[in-house]
Amino acid sequence: MRVPFLLGLVVFLACIFGILTRPTGFLAAVWPANAILLGLLVRVPKSACWQSWVAAAVGYLAADLLTGATLEKAVLLNAANMVGVAAGYQVYKYLPASSVRLQQPLALLHLAVASAIAASLAGVVGGIANPILFGGGVIPGWIFWSTTELVNYISFLPVILSAPKLEGTLPDFSGLLARLRQEKRAPLILLLISCIAGAVVGGPGAIAFPVPALLWCGVVYPVFPTAILTLCIGVWGLVILSNGLGDSSSLQLDVMTLISIRLGISLVALAPIMLSCVTQSRNALLVRLQYLATHDQLTDVLNRNAFREEVSRSLSLGMNGFALLMVDLDHFKSVNDTYGHAAGDTVLVSFVRRVQGTLRPGSLLGRMGGEEFAIMIPNSQIMDAVAEAEKIRQSVCSEPVAAGDGKLVRVTASLGVVAVEHDKAACLDALLAEADRLCYQAKERGRNRVEHCGAA
């Protein structure tokens, strides 16, 4: 019952906030409760039980009743809220997880569709309630109610859906704070300047002042902070632009102006979030392509070129001695010939996992080709490196590899070890060649052994 209670409490507090922004005769200027409830139900599936729906309904009703609404008004208003949230939840039930978390550009289209469906169905109830509560018509009530709900969903829902680590722990803001501490402050500064300029200049055009800065934020920041910023600017826009509504002589003009303002703000808010989604998807793709270009497809360790580059980069930073190991699996061709290439692949993967289990932090492991691997151990003297090599050799031959279909393949490895006292002792190519020579020397002397030379 803890989750439903917390959900009901969140809804109640969000409703109180919205009620404080509700002008006489209008819906609330800012109503986060529905979007927050929908987002939590979608992000935390275990919360979507009947007890949570009941707790949410109680939260809605309690907020209205405690702030002076009649029971009839509270029931009608919150029937629309519950219908809208239920409709949005049904849409999200059939969407992939990447859309729920706003991890792809198409997720913004899904969000817009879910918000539109939720807002439209809430508007149906609102249209029925409008003549009873406000003395208006059914169609105007549906239009005003739907647009108001749409704006609130589009403004608040991205923040809830993109928020990190909703379950178990507090959100991790360290990445965002690190960006802000370094070179990522400029978009925020421009955003602040544009908001000040909009407040000073005023008028309907002020809504466009923060747009360039928001788009810049969408390029620089992840989706979650971008969604927070667009929400803040949306609320700011409502406050700034709604101040000019009091001069209108007609209530109908006020309503239509308010609808136009809210829709404009919600559509503006979608652009930077969409841009952030595209940017993050592109960055993730580039990271994936970089990983594929530098790692062996089968064993997931560094490939030959990447290993050489990483070792060179490590050496350029300076180390108090290091060791290079060349490792070659013994009689690997016979493994492929006897058990098949699939079994050989299994042996290679198992070998890598065993080696990784013995390596100290900071070591580098790369596949140089076929069954040959290279290892760099930082800050290591020759005897330490030989001991590491012996651990690797023993882990490889300690037990056979299960290669499927009941096949047990016994594997051994030969190792060559070379160590240097400092990073300028010899060039990398010479060290790799020497380690390779020692590895073949181990094979010539009976295999399943370690050969080494003194420190260079």
Task: Walk me through the structure.
This protein folds into 2 domains: 2-291, no CATH class; 304-452, Alpha-Beta Plaits, CATH 3.30.70.270. It is 65% helix and 8% strand. It has 17 helices and 7 strands. Helix 2 (33-43) runs parallel beside helix 4. It is elongated, with a radius of gyration of 32 Å.
Concise synopsis of the structure shown:
It comes from Roseibium algicola. The chain has 456 residues and is of the alpha+beta class. It has helices at residues 2-20, 33-43, 50-66, 71-92, 97-100, 106-133, 138-162, 174-181, 186-201, 211-220, 223-242, 251-294, 304-316, 332-339, 341-358, 382-397, 428-444, and strands at 322-329, 364-369, 372-378, 401-402, 408-409, 413-420, 450-452.
Identify low-pLDDT runs: 167-171, 244-253
- In which order are the strands of the major sheet placed? 2-3-1-6-7
Query: How far is the N terminus from the C terminus?
Result: 68 Å
User: Which structural class do the helices and strands define?
Assistant: alpha+beta
Write down the overall mean pLDDT. Answer: 84
- Total number of helical segments? 17
Whole-number radius of gyration?
A: 32 Å
Throw out a few tags for this protein:
elongated; 17 helices; 456 residues; 5-stranded mixed sheet; membrane; Rev_trsase/Diguanyl_cyclase; Alpha-Beta Plaits; 7 strands; Nucleotide_cyclase; alpha+beta; diguanylate cyclase; 2 domains; two-stranded antiparallel sheet
What topology does this entry show?
Layout lengths: L1 H19 L12 H11 L6 H17 L4 H22 L4 H4 L5 H28 L4 H25 L11 H8 L4 H16 L9 H10 L2 H20 L8 H44 L9 H13 L5 E8 L2 H8 L1 H18 L5 E6 L2 E7 L3 H16 L3 E2 L5 E2 L3 E8 L7 H17 L5 E3 L4
Parallel strand pairs: 6-7
Antiparallel strand pairs: 1-3, 1-6, 2-3, 4-5
